[in-house]
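Re: the request from the purification team.
They wanted to know what the chain is likely to look like in 3D before they choose a buffer screen. I agreed to run a prediction and write the result into the notebook, where they can find it.
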Amino acid sequence: MSPTDAGATPAIVPADAVTDEVADTGHGADELTGSEPGAGTDVADTLDLRLPDELIDLIAGQGETGGQANGSVGQGAVDCIPGYGHAVDGTRAHAPGGTSTALADEDLLDNVGAWGPVTTRSGVFQLVPVRIERDLALISRWMNDPAVAAFWELEGPESVTENHLRPQLDGDGRSVPCLGVLDSTPMSYWEIYRADLDPLARYYPARPHDTGVHLLIGGVANRGRGLGTGLLKAVADLVLDHRPPCARVVAEPDLRNTPSVSAFLSAGFRFSAEVELPDKRAALMIRDRALRALL
């Protein structure tokens, strides 16, 4: 599976979320085109859109800065998990090229690596931004699990997985790949991404700062235990806690994957619409900040 857009600021094609049982898709096309935004969506989600200020600034600044750094850690980040912590001085411990670089002043996802751990019913959970040299072998092994490969389509040598991760790590920070670490053990793979800056935005009435999530649970032992619902809720809460401008967390599981849709519903997402994407018919799932206290 190849990354979507070539160039300095690649947009990552949406991968689907997982269920409590298996992983649900991560498809890649060279480009998402040819569908009218908002087709089949409910009226409540319709909004007259304007180009987000971040995208305007990004376009204006590309020639000068080469794009923003991926938001893997921010000021005040701490080493909370042995082997999966980051520097505490506001720099990335390891930049994608293997060198330490300063974090950009502004970050498209509000420094995912600095969000810290949360306590869930299953244990202490934390999103830890991926480092190729540390995490590639593990993520590639998960991608070669037949249950995962059937949806993400990233089976093969480690280079296949690396080619999926690199555009995110070397891009402008609109998509941050992370390990989900539960009680100090990496057990899931996540992508936290700016849905309003992603090709997905062409297929639904996106709003500024909409934040998307993709997920797979790696180990067979961690599937079928109800982890998916609990972790989806925890991550959605992390997004809403740490991204004040974000009013909605979105996801687009395959409509045929009933367990996946059920997991999102149980995690406080609502079914908004059926969306026809180039590689699947998806269920647009939305977790609203405004309804958070009721769920």
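For the purification team: Strands lie at 118-120, 123-129, 175-182, 185-194, 211-217, 248-251, 270-277, 280-288.
Please add any questions underneath this entry.
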